[in-house]
Amino acid sequence: MSVRLPPPIRLLERGWLSSNSVLLTGPDDTALIDSGYATHAGQTLALVRHALAGRSLDRLLNTHLHSDHCGGNAALRAAYGCQVAIPALDAARVAAWDEEALSYRATGQQCPRFGFDATLAPGMALMLGGLRWEVLAAPGHDPHALLFFCAEEGVLVSGDALWEDGFGVIFPELAGEPGFDEVGATLDLIAGLGARVVIPGHGSAFTGVDGALARARARLDYLRADPVRNARNAVKVLLKFLLLERQAIALAALPQLLGSIPLVERVRRAQLGLAPEDMAHWAAQALLKAGAARIDGAMLHDV
Fold this sequence. Notes:
CATH class of the largest domain: Alpha Beta
Number of helices: 12
Strand content: 15-25%
Number of domains: 2
Shape: globular
Helix content: 25-40%
C-alpha cells in the first residue's frame, strides 16, 4: 500500500543506482532534496521538469554527498540556476573538488563537479514547500549526513540513515574510523522524533517506523558483532552498483575491475584476506544468492 504524503511533498522514487528525490512545492518556492546518480541526470531532469509542471526549481539540497545522491546536481543547477545547499562539513572538499576526500575516487564512481551557494548544519530550520523542516545530524553511513524532519506533518527525509529494512553501508568503519556507534546514535535520534512517515534515500516511503528501527538495530548488532560482515556487504554493494551501471560484466574482468576500486582493494587486503580472484568469485556468488544478479555464459548480468 502506498503512503499518502502531504500535498506539498512528492517522492520521485528511483532504482538503486540513483537515490530518491523529494520535491517540495509551496506557494512561493520549490525545492528538491537529492538528485540521483550522474548517468541518470537526463532522467532526473525529465522527472523534475514533469513534476514541476512549468514552475522553476528554486533550491536543491543534499542529505549527503555520495555520488548516487548528488550526481544530478550539476545538471539541475545548469538547467534551472537553482541555489544548491550541501552539508557544511563537506564545503571545503566541494570547493576544492577533492574527489579522494569526497569518496568518488575511492568507490570508483563518478560525479560531475558542481558548485554550491549555501551550507546546511544541524540545528538549522528551513522553510521548504511552505513547511518548516529541521536539519539534524545523521552520522554513520556518512559522517556528514543530514536528516530533514517536518514536525508539523511528521515526515522524515532520512537519506541512507534509515530504510524500511536497514540502512546504507557503514563506510567509515571500512576506512578505520568509527561508524557503528554513530549509526546507533542516529537511530536513537530518529526514534525520539516520533515520525509518522519516513521517506528513505532508496525504496518507497513507509510508516511503521518502530518496526523499521527494530530491524535496523538488529542489523547493526549483526554487523558490529563481526566487522568483516560490514566489509563483505560493502564489496557486494559496490559490485551491484557497477552492475546496475553497466548491466553486464565479464566474469573474467571482475578481479581487475574490483581491484581498481581503492576502497574494495583496501577491504580485500585489510579485512577479507582473499586473493583478487577469490574475492571476485565470492562477490559474484553473493549477488547470485541474493537474487541480485545472474550468470549467462561468461557474463554476470544485472537483474
